[in-house]
Amino acid sequence: MDPASLGRACEGTGEDPPLRYRKLILQGPLILAERWTLRFLRSNFGIQLPTLARIAYTLTILLFLGHYLFFVPAERMGLCQNFAAAMRHFFAALAGLKPQPLPAVHWG
Length: 108
Description:
Blueprint: H1 3-9, H2 17-24, H3 27-45, H4 51-77, H5 79-94
């Protein structure tokens, strides 16, 4: 990815582009660390965490990363408001009503 497109991809997030992409690669090492830790505990000590504990840990990591890597930037860009306006426009068109003009999309 060239530096110009990297900068455009992070517009409106208030973050340095390399920092944002460094955060995106956190998920892989965390999942690997989880797998290695579980394998180490099972092979060396005979300890296997209950399935519900493993599920809770994995979902906690995914939800935490999802919040900071997707929802916060989406809210800063106004993605939620633009999506809601587009849906109102779509349903008004389906109902045969005169749709209101869509608001301008602000990506930055």
